[in-house]
Amino acid sequence: MTSRLRVLIVDDHPIVRQGLKQTLIDAADMGELGEASTAQEALDLIRLGEWDAVVLDIGLPGRSGLDVLKDIKRERPRLPVLILSMHAEDQYAVRAIRAGAGGYLTKEAASEKLLDAIRKITTGGRFITPDLAERLATELTDGTQGPPHASLSDREFEVLRLIASGSPVGDIAGRLSLSVKTVSTYRARILEKMHMHNNAELMQYVLTNHLLD
What is the pTM of this model? Predict the structure, then answer.
């Protein structure tokens, strides 16, 4: 690692990227601050350059941030990635850490904690809250059963949230670049895994468990 950190910021909103850069720019240990607005642009920059950390928005258009995270880890297994999200920890954090993220930070807390989080993950640590650490420890405990939605794959969980938000199957297919048939297959798997029968039950579960924004 260089003495001054090279950090790539990946977010589709220019104002958000600028705000994150302003949070970091005056720190003595910050060097180059790169920007990417799409998953493909981020992967191209990661392949071409040497970065010490990536700050990755989980809500990139067209692709799940978790899928992008997995792509990054395939390209650069040792590159620390901090997931930045508008979603509360209990929605995506455990999945992000399991997928290889070095930390999870909500956008609400970014102005105060972003610099500390980057320093933590670039020195080999993980930036997680005590609550998240407890959930991760619980997952590793033999015989512990998580909530029903914990059994879903990352893509199934994403489809679940979109169904519960009221999005029609065709809209979900377009948003995730999938066929309508594939989305319907995911829906069937979700219902089976969660022992439910229809969208109304899924919606009630998601709302009860605060899995939407």
Answer: 0.72
Residue type, 195: H
CA pair distance 212, 161, nearest whole angstrom: 6
Q: What is the pLDDT of residues 64-119, one digit of tens each?
A: 788 899 999 999 999 999 999 887 666 678 888 888 999 999 888 888 999 999 99
Q: How far apart are CA 140 and CA 138, in angstroms?
A: 5
Dist CA 189 CA 149 (whole Å):
12
Residue 188 dihedral angles phi and psi, to the nearest 5°: -65, -40
Instruction: Map residue 209 onto helix, strand or coil.
Output: coil
- Contact yes or no for 142/159 (Cβ under 8 A): no
Contact 83, 59 (CB under 8 A): no
pLDDT at 86: 80
Decide: residue 28, CB within 10 A, 0-12 exposed, 13-18 middle, 19+ buried. exposed
Contact in structure between 194 and 149 (CB atoms under 8 Å): yes
Question: Which tokens in the block code for residue 39?
Answer: 């998953």
CB 58 within 8 A of CB 84: yes
- Nearest Cα neighbor of 4 from 52, 54, 55 is 52
C-alpha–C-alpha distance, residues 32 and 185, integer Å: 44
Which 3 state secondary structure label does DSSP give 83?
strand
Q: Is 131 exposed, middle or buried (0-12, 13-18, 19+ CB in 10 A)?
A: exposed
d(CA 73, CA 179): 27
Q: Which amino acid is at 186?
A: Y
